[in-house]
Amino acid sequence: MAIVQVTIVPLGTGTPSVSDYVAAVHQVLEQNSERVKFQLTPMSTIIEGDLEDLLSVVRRMHEVPFENGAMRVSTSITIDDRRDKHGTMEQKLQSVEQKLKDR
Length: 103
What we know:
Layout: E1 2-11, H1 19-31, E2 36-40, E3 45-49, H2 51-67, E4 72-80, H3 89-102
Antiparallel strand pairs: 1-3, 1-4, 2-3
Helix pairs in contact: 1-2
């Protein structure tokens, strides 16, 4: 199981707001909710699942701003692919929270 952080920024849209683009990109995640788990944050989106599925979904997400009029799109991806044990977004948070309690 891999975890991907993705930030997609449409450029040259004529407005500083990108929330319409974010909402359109988010629809791709909703359409793939059986393949990936996702969490929208104020600055990026975190996606969890099989690496092949994640890369396919990110590719589809990257295309959405173009389909909505953007002429240039900058997509940043960070992949956390740990293979020595099963890890999830939830498990990672619980691990840190437990360490904070133990202090």
